[in-house]
Every structure is written in structure tokens, then in C-alpha cells.
Amino acid sequence: MPCDLAIVGAGPAGLMTARTAAGLGLKTVLLEKRTDVGRLTRACCEQLIMDRHFQGDTVRLEGGAVVSLENGFRVPYQGPALDVVHKYFVSPAGSRIHFAHPDRSPIVIKIDKGALLGGLWDECARAGVDLRSGAHVHGARDTGAGVELSVTRSGRQERIAARRLIIADGVNSRLAGRMGITSGRSCMATALCVIYFLEGAESFQPDTLYTYFGRAYCGLAPITINAGRQPGQTSLVVIGNKANPPEKLFRAITTEGALAPKLKRARIAGRLGCAARACMPLRTPAQGNVLVIGDAAAYVEVEMQGALACGFQAARAVAAELAGRAGFEDYMRWWQRSFEFNGDDWMQVAQGFALVPAYGDDELDYLFGLVEGEVLEGTYNQYRSPRLMWGAILRHSERIRAELPALHEKIMNRTQVALSDML
Ligand SMILES: Cc1cc2nc3c(=O)[nH]c(=O)nc-3n(C[C@H](O)[C@H](O)[C@H](O)COP(=O)(O)OP(=O)(O)OC[C@H]3O[C@@H](n4cnc5c(N)ncnc54)[C@H](O)[C@@H]3O)c2cc1C
């Protein structure tokens, strides 16, 4: 007898699908290759994002739970929580663009993602989900009537039959590709990312998220610093590629870069890495009996609350499908309108706004200096932050034109698309 639903991947998307589906009365099996979902093996900054209407939801942490204000679910969470109330973009010479809410309510809340996932896993068990950890799904076939999965668990091959399949296997999703669902989807680059957990890096405030822009810092991409996983620790996020691996960049950042004086006494207490492929989003992530959700269908990432929202909506979509309604169609409409990367212009806007490598260190110092002292709206959103930043900088447009006409022209050329969208 096939089960109603098989789910591949026990990240926030897969776990939320499983819990919701079991709650709706579906016979559900969840397959995860890791053996302990509560122990993170992959880099994540573990910040619960407080932006409204961001990546499928608005979430809050209240009453011992992550509460969804738009989708209407609750996920119990009993772990630590640290409010992060300031965000700074910092130029090579140290000029800062400040983002914060007027009441200093959190921009993000640093949580323990392992505790969140472990709690959801326990809830799935209580809801009657057939939980299989250490189960690697290496193939799946849509038979028309349902799906058949090939699974290796404890060295043994298993076959699992289900009426519907949810693929939630994360940013480097392999399964959707093997089933031909992602054919034609272009991938732009693979980033190698390592988060270093540092002890003794005392100049950084735990309630602040810092991003450092410019060649002076010796990174390939902007360098992010935020609170670490343990009290007193600091996380340093380094993004590289094959030619410039994060380890090499880390050495340069901590010995030669502009942050080196602040980091020279720091000791590495731990690290988590990952490779992440930046692929165009799957705008229509359903095919036959299969739906692809979460990071597996995204441009890079949906973030934790986006993954939970995907799981919640996907389970309801499957229940509707099995009741003879067009649940996958409804899901795709929700997916397309809820995630900014599914819009038509986000890529052009993002490119137009990019600071590095478009602007040299002196230019960044000049531009950041124009708005130092102002406080911009508190936001984490990686599409909204540059809009706000450029909005503030361009209020000084006439001054830039008078003082540095070549820089003014460069800005106008690069941000043409972004500006017309913003003004
Ligand atoms: C450096 C970095 C920092 C980040 N920081 C934040 C942050 O601060 N806040 C935030 O909200 N988000 C952050 N994210 C994004 C966040 O981690 C993801 O968006 C989120 O975890 C996606 O959830 P998911 O369930 O779609 O996929 P994942 O969490 O990746 O889960 C996929 C699961 O599928 C399993 N799997 C894969 N293949 C198979 C297979 N063949 N068989 C069985 N199981 C399989 C994996 O083991 C994994 O458990 C960050 C990501 C990175 C890379």
C-alpha cells in the first residue's frame, strides 16, 4: 500500500511539510540522509528574520514558539534567543551606514536552528509521521499513479511508494534534476562558504550585524560578522570559490585585511561550511505527482521562515490534490507572489545596486560617508537594504555630481534600472 506522501529532506521545509501533512490526516514518510537533524552540519547564520512580508511570511518569536502571522502556524521553540537590533554596512575606512528600527525592536533574532529542527522532528513523531533518518534517496520515478523512490539506509536498498512526492533536499538539490524537473534551469555560480566561530574577537557587539565592503578587507565578497553560536563567540562568514577557497581568504582577512587588528587575538572555536549553487528560481516547481519546495526551488535560499512557510503550504497543496482539487496550482500561485526572486526585475535591480566590485575603496568611503550618522529603516531583506542605502546616498546626488562627476555618472549608469524602479 503506498503512503499518501513521501518527503525528501528534513530541513525546515521538509519537517514542516511532514508535521502539517500528518496533522491533516495524510499517511506521511519523511526521509533524511543525516542521522541527527538537531545537529547542524551545514553553514547557517541561524537568524530568524523579523522583516514583514519577507520570503513568504512575517514571523515572530513569542510564547515559546515561532509564530507565523501570515500563514498561521506555530512551531514550538525553547532554545536561546538573542535580539539583533543594529545592522551596519561598513566602508574600507570604517564609515558606517546604520539600519535600525526607531524602537530598537529586533531586525533578526539569533536562535539555535538545531533546537528548532529537533523540536519539529519530535512533533512529527508525535503526529505519527514515519521518520527515517540515515536514509539517502538517490532516485525517484513518477509512475503516473504515484511515485517510487529508491532509498539506501544502513547499507540496504529500499523502495518506497507514495501517491505524491515533496522534494525538499535543499539548495544543491539533486533529486529534482534526476527527475528532469529542473532541466533548463540555469546555474550561475557555486559559492563556497565557511562560518568561523571565533573566541576573543571582542570588538564586535553581539546585538549587531556587520557587513564589510571593499577590497581593503581582503574578502572576495562582503564579509559578514555577527554573534556566534555560544555566548562570547563571534561568527565570521567568508564566501569564496574554488580559485579562492574560504580558508585562504580567512588567512588574508585575519592577517592582512583592514579587520586584522580586531581579529589578531581571535581563536577558531569551530566552523561550519557549505557549497551553495546560485540557480535561477524554479517558477513552476510542480510536475506530475511531484512538488519541489524550499531552497531546492529557490534562487539560493528561502531562509528559515520561508522554508517553514513552503512546507506548510505544500502539505495543504498535497491534501487538496489527493481530494481531487488543484492544490499544486494554488501552491505555485502562492510561491510566485510570495518570494521576491520570482519577480521579473529582481536580478537587474540586484546587479544595479551591487557595490563590490563596481566601486573602488575610495568611492565606497566617500559614498558611505555621505550618510554616516543617519539611521535607515531596520531591515534584513537583501533586496530592500540596497534600495534604502541608495535612496539615502542619492539624496546627495547634486553634491556627488559637483564633487565627483565621474562617480556620479557611474552610479547613474549602473543603477538606471534600479533607480527607475525605486523613484
Ligand atoms: C551561509 C548561510 C547562512 C544562512 N543564514 C541564514 C539565516 O541567518 N537565517 C535564515 O533564515 N536562513 C539562513 N540561511 C538559509 C537557510 O539555511 C535555508 O534557506 C534553509 O535551511 C532552507 O531550508 P530547506 O528545508 O529548504 O533546505 P535545507 O535546510 O538545506 O534541508 C535540506 C535537507 O535535505 C537533506 N537531503 C539532501 N539530499 C538528500 C537526499 N538525497 N536524501 C535524503 N535527504 C537529503 C539534507 O541533509 C537536509 O537536511 C543561510 C544559508 C547559508 C548557506
What do you see in this structure?
There is one protein chain. Strands 1, 2, 11, 12, 13, 14, 20 and 21 form an eight-stranded mixed beta sheet that branches. This protein has an eight-stranded mixed beta sheet with strand order 19-15-18-17-16-8-9-22. It has helices spanning 12-23, 113-127, 175-178, 246-255, 260-263, 303-322, 327-338, 346-353, 361-371, 384-394, 397-403, 405-414, 416-422, and strands at residues 3-8, 28-31, 47-49, 59-62, 65-68, 74-76, 81-84, 86-90, 96-99, 108-111, 130-132, 135-142, 147-153, 156-167, 187-199, 208-212, 223-227, 233-240, 267-279, 286-287, 290-292, 375-376. The longest helix is centred in the C-terminal third of the chain and has 20 residues, at 303-322. The protein has 13 helices and 22 strands. By secondary structure, the chain is α/β, with parallel strands linked by helices. The protein has three domains: 3-46 and 112-184 and 282-341, 3-Layer(bba) Sandwich (FAD/NAD(P)-binding domain); 187-279, D-Amino Acid Oxidase, subunit A, domain 2 (D-Amino Acid Oxidase, Chain A, domain 2, 2-Layer Sandwich); 346-422, no CATH class. The chain starts with a strand and ends with a helix. The structure holds flavin-adenine dinucleotide. Flavin-adenine dinucleotide binds at residues 8-14, 31-34, 43-47, 49, 136-137, 168-171, 175, 193, 237, 274, 276, 294-296, 301-304, 307. The site of flavin-adenine dinucleotide has 36 residues, from helix 1, strand 3, strand 12, strand 19 and helix 6.
